[in-house]
Specification:
single chain, 265 residues, mainly alpha, MetI-like fold, 0% strand
Length: 265
C-alpha cells in the first residue's frame, strides 16, 4: 500500500514538474501567433509578429551576432578543449591534477565575478569592447565544459592504443586523428553541444564584455524587459523549433546507424 502511495506521489510530482517547465514554453508559442500586443489575452491567429521580427533590423543583427559568436566559440573551444584534454591524459599526475583544478574554477565561479574580471582584464589591456572581446570571453568559459566532456572518454580508452598505432606505422598525427579522435567523438560532440548552448544562452558575461552595436539575443531581451515586444515570442518560438529539430537529429541518427549496423552483421 505504501509503495502504491509513493508511486502515485512520484507520478504527480513528475507531472507538476513537467507542467512547470513546459507550460511557459507552450504559452510563448501560442502568443507568438496572437493578432494583438496582449500577452494575456489571445485575440486571434496572425503571423504579424513573425513579419515584424524579420523586418526589425536590430533583432536580426542580434540573432546574427548570437549565431556567429556561438558557432565560432563552439569550434574554437572544441578544438582547444579536445587537444588540451588529450595532452593532459599524457601528462604527469601532478600536472594533470593542477590543470583540472584550474579548469574547474570558471565553472564553479559565479558568472558575475567572471564577467567583472574579464571587464577589468580587457580594460587593463586597453582592448576596445566589441565583437572580439565577446568572442574571447565566450571561448574562455566554453573550453572548461569541453574538457570535462572529453576527459571521461579519454580515461576509458586503452592507454596503449596510441602506442599500438605508432608501432603499426602511423605517424603521431595519424594516430591522433584516425585512432584517438574517433574513439572520443561522443565526448567531443557532447562538449560542442554544451559549448554552443552556453554561448547562445549567456547574458551576464556578454553584457559586461560587449561594446556598442554588438548585442546578442539575451542582451536584446534584457533591453526590452520594461516594454516587452511580442516579436520576442516569435523569435523564441523559432529558437525552440530549431533546438527541437537538432535534438531529434542528434538522437535519431545514432539509432538509424545502429539499426543499419545490425542489418549488416
Amino acid at each position: 500500500m505504501e509503495k502504491k502511495k509513493t508511486s502515485l506521489f512520484s507520478k504527480i510530482l513528475l507531472g507538476l514538474t513537467a507542467v512547470f517547465f513546459y507550460v511557459p514554453i507552450l504559452y510563448i508559442i501560442l502568443f507568438s501567433f496572437n493578432s494583438s500586443r496582449s500577452l494575456t489575452k489571445f485575440e486571434g491567429f496572425s503571423l504579424r509578429w513573425y513579419e515584424k521580427m524579420f523586418a526589425d533590423s536590430t533583432m536580426m543583427e542580434a540573432v546574427a551576432y548570437t549565431v556567429i559568436i556561438a558557432v565560432l566559440a563552439t569550434i574554437i573551444s572544441t578544438v582547444v578543449g579536445t587537444l588540451t584534454a588529450i595532452g593532459l591524459s599524457k601528462s604527469r599526475k601532478l600536472m594533470r591534477a593542477v590543470v583540472e583544478q584550474v579548469n574547474n574554477l570558471p565553472i564553479m565561479n559565479p558568472e558575475i565575478v567572471t564577467a567583472i574580471g574579464l571587464l577589468m582584464f580587457f580594460s587593463a589591456l586597453g582592448v576596445k569592447k566589441g565583437f572580439l572581446t565577446l568572442l574571447l570571453a565566450h571561448v574562455m568559459f566554453c573550453i572548461p565544459y569541453v574538457i570535462l566532456s572529453v576527459t571521461p572518454k579519454l580515461r576509458s580508452l586503452d592507454p596503449n592504443l596510441a602506442d599500438a598505432a605508432l608501432d603499426l606505422g602511423a605517424t603521431p598525427m595519424q594516430a591522433l586523428w584516425k585512432v584517438i579522435v574517433p574513439q572520443i567523438m561522443p565526448g567531443i560532440i557532447s562538449g560542442a553541444l554544451i559549448a554552443f548552448t552556453m554561448s547562445f544562452d549567456d547574458f551576464v558575461i556578454s553584457y559586461f564584455v560587449t561594446g556598442n552595436g554588438v548585442n546578442n539575443i539575451s542582451i536584446l531581451v534584457y533591453t526590452m524587459s520594461k516594454r516587452v515586444n511580442p516579436s520576442i515570442n516569435a523569435l523564441s518560438t523559432l529558437v525552440i523549433l530549431l533546438i527541437t529539430v537538432v535534438l531529434l537529429i542528434v538522437n535519431v541518427i545514432p539509432i538509424i546507424k545502429e539499426k543499419k549496423g545490425r542489418k549488416v552483421t
